[in-house]
Amino acid sequence: MTALSKIIRVEAKLFLRDPVGTFFAVAFPALLILVLGLAMPGFREPADELDGRLPLEAYLPITMTLAIATVTMMTLVSAVGTYRERGILRRLSTTPVSPAAVLVAQVAVNVAALLVACGLAWLVAATVFDVPPPGNAAGFVLAFTLGAGAMCAVGLLVTAVTPSARASMGIGQLIYFPMMFFAGVWTPGPLMPDLVRKVADFTPLGAASQALQDAWAGSWPTLTHLAVMVAFTVVLGGIAARYFRWE
Amino acid sequence: MPVIEVRNLRKQYGDQVAVADVSLSVDEGEIFGLVGPNGAGKTTTVECVEGLRSPDGGSVRVLGLDPRRDRAAVRRKLGIQLQESQLPDRIKVWEALDLYSSFYPHPADWRELMDELGLTPKRNAVFAKLSGGQKQRLSIALALVGNPSVAILDELTTGLDPQARRDTWELVRQVRDRGVTVVLVTHFMDEAERLCDRLAVVAAGRVVAVDTPRNLIAGAQVPGVERPTLEDAILALTAAGSNR
Fold first, then answer.
1. How far apart are CA B3 and CA B27, in angstroms?
2. For testing the chain B interface, which of A75, A89, A94 should be mutated: the one with the most B CBs within 10 Å?
3. Helix (H) or strand (E) holding A192
4. Does residue A10 belong to the interface with chain B, where contact is any CB pair within 8 Å?
5. Averaged over A150-168, what is the pLDDT?
6. Residue-level pLDDT at A190
7. What ipTM did this prediction achieve?
8. Any CB–CB contact under 8 A between B121 and chain A?
9. CA of B208: how far to CAs of A111, A224, B211, B230, B237, in Å?
10. Is any Cβ of chain B less than 8 angstroms from the Cβ of A245?
11. Contact across the interface for A94 and B75, Cβ inside 8 Å
């Protein structure tokens, strides 16, 4: 346990020593909320199509979904891909500690960054724009946990099936951008065409986004969305664990 | 009891036979060298000893243990320096040593080790900013930080300048003097001659000779060369071995 906690501590330091990565992972979501809220007055006016809620309030869970995607598909994928390519995982497998400990540490650090990022985004939304807290806090935590888990599984699968760090990052981005579309980063769920919305429901990030929005609005995430996230976590995580190569 | 015992080791990747038939035994407290041309099977052999690869045939014992089956126990006793293994760019020298020492049940004092390897002035430097020699010394330090009984060093001095190479040799002798058995993979003949107590000459996946450097030179039959060097002796042996 001391080895694992030390690895996590070192990985956290390494994470923080990359200013650009830290900015995008930690500060970007809060900044996005701030800019959207300040630059687009429409985001601060109660909207009829949202039952009188602020568009910014609907957009906050989407921003959090974006944060999940950034941290898992960009930061996690690039870190794990690079570690493997440079023989760091292989070097660890010659010690009594399993290289899996580094993966655990990477996931832990990235999830922590994600929590801070979402906390900051919420703080900005709440203090600057009076966005209320999630209507269904338990539902929100559930949706967030499952969504982050599903996306970690996607990220690890990408690193498992790609031969090099470059390929991992390339494929990661190839998945990242369309997924953000399904998550409603560009067109929030209620405004999506029906067909797109149906497809989005069955993507991990789309399901996470909808589930987070539902929970923020006060209801429980739908069973479909929860099931989609669990299925992605179990199936993709299982395949990733099966095919992951340490070198 | 030998510290490392390899019997009839065989390993192939697809159709390509990397190790055809290697047997060797390394005694406690010696510096044992594996020499031979690139692609002879040296690295694959040590990777099987390290438990990084599973042999297709034959057996490997390290301190009486099977490196695949008794993985955990072997890893606690083995210090390994891999060819071309790196660390994260932004990790500091002291952090790497501190981290790796936490992996072992009875680690060496990493501060002392850092000092012995002349890395103390660089303790706060990040890996990416180290010179080739400093990276190599850090890699050796990490191989020793677990207080191993056996250290396996693969291409120890590749990329080092002459002074750094000599310093590294001295260091390997010091390591041996502490009671650590050292296996050295190299293709530098001067290194093999000065440093190793015994050498196994590997060619085309087989051991063609095992002896002290002095005896290998004395036994060399090199037509047209009056006083053959170790290099002449080994080239003659590996040429004969590869043509078999």
1. 5
2. A94
3. none
4. yes
5. 92
6. 61
7. 0.85
8. no
9. 54, 66, 10, 15, 7
10. no
11. yes
Query: Shortest CB distance from B88 goes to which of A6, A88, A97?
Result: A88
Closest by CA to B191, choosing from B153, B241, B238, is B153
Alpha-carbon gap: B92 to the closest alpha carbon of chain A (Å): 9
Do the chains contact at B103 and A88, CB–CB below 8 Å? no
Share of chain A above pLDDT 70, in %: 98
- pLDDT bracket for residue A182 (50, 70, 90): confident
Nearest to B147 by CA among B116, B183, B178, B115: B178
What value does the mean pLDDT take over residues B27-32?
A: 94
- Model confidence band, residue B231 (pLDDT cutoffs 50, 70, 90): confident
pLDDT of residue A191: 66
| Closest CA of chain A from B99, distance in Å | 6
Q: What is the rounded distance in angstroms from the CA atom of residue A126 to the CA atom of residue A116?
A: 15
Instruction: Name the residue among A151, A155, A152 with its Cα closest to residue A81.
Output: A155
| SS3 category, A95 | coil
Q: How many CB atoms lie within 10 A of CB A174?
A: 12
Tokens 């190299």 locate to B186
The residue that leads in pLDDT, A220 or B82, is A220
